[in-house]
Amino acid sequence: MRNLRTDLAVEAREIYAKESNGNPEGVEYNEYKIGDVNVIDVKITNEIGERNMGKPVGTYITLDLPEFAHYDGEVMDEVSKAMAKSLEGLVKLEDSMTALVVGLGNWNVTPDALGPKVISRLMITRHLKELVPDSIDEGVRPVCAIAPGVLGITGIETGEIIRGVVDKIKPNLIVCIDALASRKMDRVNKTIQIGNTGISPGSGVGNKRMEISERTLGVPVIAVGVPTVVDAATMANDTIDLVLDAMIKEATAGGKFYEMLKSIDKNEKGRMIREVLDPYVGNLMVTPKEVDMVIDSLSRIIANGINIALQPALDLEDINKFLN
Fold first, then answer.
1. Are residues 149 and 202 in the same domain?
2. Helix count and strand count (H, E) for the chain
3. What are the Cα distances from residue 171, in Å, to 134, 149, 303, 313?
4. Pair (89, 194) in one structural domain
5. Cβ pair 42, 17 in contact under 8 A
6. Radius of gyration, alpha carbons of the chain
7. CB count, 10 Å around CB of 33?
8. Model confidence pLDDT, tens digit, residues 70-125
9. Same domain, 240 and 318
């Protein structure tokens, strides 16, 4: 599993189950639907599950986007409501408590601009609750947000910026949005993952920065992410696996060629592919050509999901009136 790059808990479980012919110990799995949205809960319950999955103990909720989610406004709203329902169990706030939303990523790079785009569509209320409290309904929760950029732009660790903001405004909850990396191309831009274990910015593209979590900040952190890229070496590895499987089917069982194909170490093959590709393409990540339109629609879906979850006293129509 260490040779296969993925930020998705559901994929990590699939990889383990395939390699070990069984479900990983210390991991609970539940699949269900919210409306037409398929939802998968993966709970890592102990240290054994943590070792097996390569991810911290906690809850990881995966929503699969329905067909036409990027084109149909009604489907977008349905996914937003399903996301809000999934967030409800993780958002433990009273009406007076403050939520800080952090949009991670580089706004100059489209596949990494999801976080900042979500921030631009949020219902921000903290300043209104402080400055004009009489004009805001009592049930409206104070929400503030920041898009801190990336180390290459600011020269400051993202985690350090967030820690400074947290120390100043003392929020009761942090929600982080970031772009992730997927193991499979068919999950790119089609899956939303929600977790309560925090996040390490840049980890999806092999550029791991300071961890943003309750352990480092002293505040509960919910991470929301979408895989917007896939590793080129992973795609090459999958292609070769398909070729090998086809050749094994055609080879004569028991023959030397058949035995040679069966004996190929897939982990060793993965390492070899990375070594061969590195001088030519380096750490190449791949994203679909329609990524501009997709990031725009995903930012709307996620922003509304967060808005609904953080403002339970309001419905989506009220939120849209506020934003417009």
1. yes
2. 13, 9
3. 22, 20, 19, 20
4. yes
5. no
6. 21
7. 10
8. 888 899 999 999 999 999 989 989 888 999 999 999 999 999 999 999 999 999 99
9. no
- Regarding whether 211 and 91 lie in a shared domain, the answer is yes
Model confidence pLDDT, tens digit, residues 244-270? 778 888 777 777 776 776 777 766 776
Q: Where are the beta strands (DSSP E) in the chain?
A: 27-34, 37-44, 58-64, 99-104, 143-149, 173-182, 191-195, 221-231, 285-286
199 contacts 162 by C-beta, under 8 angstroms: no
Mean pLDDT of 208-231: 89
Return all residues near 213 (Cβ < 8 A) that are at least 6 apart.
Answer: 56, 197, 198, 199, 221
Asked whether residue 3 is assigned to any structural domain, the reply reads no
The residue segments making up the domain with residue 210 are 9-233+284-323
Q: Which residues of 158-186 are buried (b: 16+ CB within 10 A; e: fewer)?
A: bbebbbebbeeeebbbbbbbbbbbbbbbe
Alpha-carbon dihedral sign for residues 65, 69, 70, 74 = negative
246 and 139 within one domain: no
Instruction: Decide if 230 contacts 188 (C-beta within 8 A).
Output: yes
Which helix (DSSP H) or strand (DSSP E) does residue 240 occupy? helix 232-250
- The number of beta carbons lying within 10 Å of the beta carbon of residue 286 is 14
The identity of residue 117, as a single letter, is K
User: Which sign does the torsion angle of CA 171, 175, 177, 180 carry?
Assistant: positive
**What's the pLDDT tens digit per position in 13-32?**
988 887 777 778 899 999 99
